[in-house]
Specification:
By secondary structure, the protein is mainly α. It has helices at residues 15-35, 39-50, 65-89, 101-116, 122-136, 141-156. The chain has a single domain (15-156), classed as Orthogonal Bundle (N-utilizing Substance Protein B Homolog, Chain A), CATH 1.10.940.10. It starts with 14 loop residues before the first helix and ends in a 5-residue tail after the last helix.
Length: 161
């Protein structure tokens, strides 16, 4: 079953909840890529087991499950449109198929948000996914995320966003 993008709004939402949902979306997309897990199965697994804040932790925040689901479903639904955007934004000689699976999931998630989540400023989307990249990589990858998402953002959004 295909659903339309949720287009969540950022009003009244804890920004850390969106950050947690982005990290979860990247992890879910990675798992789908590596293990071939079904879309509905992965969303159910994450919503029931992985996107649950630890009540004993002061730092954990309840992730925005609607945003998580919108990003994961949106990336899967629009991957044929997203992948060429990423390929065109990568440095010459690089292709999406050639990069690490985690980096691919980060770029796809960020590209989806840049295309579909107009209520979130371009800089916020880019910074959030650079932060996600820092959670997984210590090398040049966060810079790649910054450059690629910046190129995509300039191509899909009006200059004022």
């Amino acid at each position: 079953m295909t659903t339309a993008p949720a287009q969540p709004t950022s009003k009244g939402l804890n920004p850390k909840a969106r950050s947690a949902s982005r990290l979860g979306a990247v992890q879910a997309l990675y798992q789908m890529d590596m293990a071939g897990t079904d879309l509905d199965e992965i969303i159910e697994e994450f919503n029931e087991q992985r996107l649950v804040a630890d009540p004993d932790s002061e730092e954990m925040v309840e992730p925005d499950q609607a945003h998580f689901e919108d990003v994961v479903r949106g990336v899967v639904r629009e991957q044929r449109d997203i992948d060429p955007l990423i390929n065109n934004a990568l440095a010459k000689g690089w292709s999406l198929a050639r990069i690490d699976s985690t980096l691919r999931a980060i770029l796809r998630s960020g590209a989806y948000e840049l295309r579909r989540c107009d209520d979130i400023p371009l800089k916020v989307v880019i910074n959030e996914y650079v932060d996600v990249a820092h959670a997984f990589f210590e090398g040049d990858e966060p810079g790649v995320v910054n450059a690629v998402l910046d190129r995509i953002g300039r191509s899909v959004r009006a200059p004022s966003k």
